[in-house]
């Protein structure tokens, strides 16, 4: 049940980012938000650690600011993969990717804090 609630929270975070930024677009279907949430979760679980390991020197030199670029790249990759599967989610430019990844991260964190059950505390 906890996994489903986190999935819904992630989809809601993507929806908030799409609503807040004109540089993020989707086709208006609720299923697209849920699929994008799954793709983003998989990309962050599989690709992001590899990229972070390869870029650990740059991350250290920039005092972590390179993580913004990595997060933006993961959002771009999510948009590309969603498009390949026929879901209408697009990231239009780099600025939107950076701001969108920040919004998704903050919204996901906030919503997950609201959804914590007694076992997590």
TrEMBL record:
Chain segments annotated as transmembrane: 7-24, 30-47, 54-77, 97-115
UniProtKB keywords: Membrane, Transmembrane, Transmembrane helix
Pfam families referenced in this protein's UniProt entry, alphabetically: Phage_holin_4_2
Keyword Transmembrane listed: yes
InterPro entries (UniProt xref): Phage_holin_4_2
Name of the protein described by the UniProt record: Putative membrane protein
Organism: Longimicrobium terrae
């Amino acid at each position: 049940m906890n996994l489903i609630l986190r999935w819904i929270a992630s989809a809601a975070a993507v929806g908030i980012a799409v609503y807040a930024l004109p540089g993020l677009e989707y086709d208006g279907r609720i299923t697209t938000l849920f699929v994008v949430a799954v793709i983003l979760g998989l990309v962050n679980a599989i690709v992001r650690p590899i990229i972070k390991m390869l870029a650990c020197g740059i991350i250290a030199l920039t005092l972590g600011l390179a993580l913004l670029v990595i997060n933006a790249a993961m959002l771009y990759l999510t948009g590309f993969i969603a498009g390949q599967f026929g879901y209408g989610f697009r990231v239009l430019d780099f600025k939107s990717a950076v701001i969108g990844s920040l919004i998704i991260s903050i919204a996901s964190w906030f919503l997950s804090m609201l959804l914590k059950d007694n076992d997590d505390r």
